# Entry
Amino acid sequence: MARRKPPAPNVKKFGAPLYASAWIDDRVALVAGGGGKKSSGIPNRVMQASFDSVELTEPLASVHTDETAPQVLCAHPYGAELLVAFSGDVAVYVVTANDASTQLAETEESDAPPPEASAPYRISPRDLDDASGTATRVTLATCDVKCAAFSPDGASLAVGLESGEVRLFAWPTLEPSEVRLDGSHADAVNGVAFSPDGTQLLSTSSETVKDGRGPIVWNVSTGAKVATLVDEGREKAAGKARFGRQYRFCGFTPCGAFALTGLNDGGEGHVCKWACDTWKPLGTARRVTREPLSAMAFDPTGRTVACGNSEGHVLIVDVKTLAIKKTIRGAHMIFVTTMAYSPDGSTVLSGSADASACCTVVSRKRTGAGGTNGGAWNDVAEKAYALLVAAVLAWLFFTVGRLAARLQTAAIGPDANGGAGGDVERIDMLAGLKYGDIKRLAADVRRRREAGGDSPGGDASAPAVNDESHKPTPDDTERLFADEDPTPYECVDGENIRCEDVLTEPEAWEMRVKKKGAGGDDDGQTHTKPKSREDARAATFEAVPSEAMETGDGRVPSLGAPGWGDRTRDEL
# Structure
């Protein structure tokens, strides 16, 4: 049985299905979930953990929520309070930093401190119920609260309900706002988001897109509908085939120029981008996954958007191009239920009903020492490092190339004119012949030339008329034509010895000898270029006399070497 791969350090199990997530600061994350009633045996709680860009810790502290599991977490913009929704009820918790100097520690005289005392933050109910001693809960609706969002100034709270309504409440009293939004969606609201200036509210619903339905933009001051987002091009292309088209989740870019929504169309997840001045789509929706979207989160810096699908994958999408920057396949075993960005936008926290939480690093933190922004310096340093690496690689390639050239020159030696070609014969492999045999013949020819006084530095372009050193000896010829499929070839005697395969129309077993002065300036004359290949061959080579090409029944053609015309093929 195959051994299961251990989980990555950025993934941890929290012992309960997770439904909500949030961040207190850039390092401390919150996840919430549970099993509902105590009879399930799974506790309901809000858990605190930290992430250092590499490892996600085990729960450092937790707050139990009795018999109801938290469904929504929403951190206040100022970070001092946390809203937790349980069905239609909500409770408010106060987040207090634990000073390292006052944190309790285990001593010889005392037991280990409780986790809440050693955790970075202490989470406690803002208001206590006198009868039960637990957090006071406020009922906002008779149906489930599906999503919530604070206004940028933190003075208002918007909640999306299972009934399709979007309601506004004052903070911190949680009193219903005097502004009532005019209308509602046809199905449960799954996303609400305030514009950066706080004047408008965008909401999405699980309703099927038809008859002009879709994401709605509300005026927060009057409650009137500003616009319904409709992609007319997609509507016309889809025609009547609108089954399964639902917008899910929404958010704004920090500049307020664009809004983003998710879209499940035909079982595939898309990301849509809208212009906030016209509320028209910017380009076409971009498909990012072939599975439906089950969760989304929007980068507070406006660079990316995170998507989780029904297969447990996590995808990071670039806001400008809607292109996928990173995909973490199998981040969770089953569908993603919740996602949240850290305040600096460097990390995405995702949770699943399989009780796992995963922290995905989107980008390196750009905060320098002392909390100052060192992003520009980091960019320059990264570019300089890349240029340095490129320069080193280029130098290595150049050095290796020069070394190879020097090794080749040292092996061949300089030629008669001082070049790098050398007087050593250039040998090309002939089809059907052994390279070692050809090389041995060339070396033998060179030895004969040197024995005849033709030194490498001499005039090799004018060989003696009767010099037959280029011709193979009987023993050499026997080795050359011992192969099953001998191939015709040429031996050309010039400044260098070159044996090449004859590829165009030579007669079988024909050997041709280069004419003196043909094809070059050996005779001191200027030659005009032949008009055709046949003319070139006729001007370059002279035919071997027919007496040298004796043939007979069962006998191989003669090469003009003594004794070879009398041997049969079987004897060879």
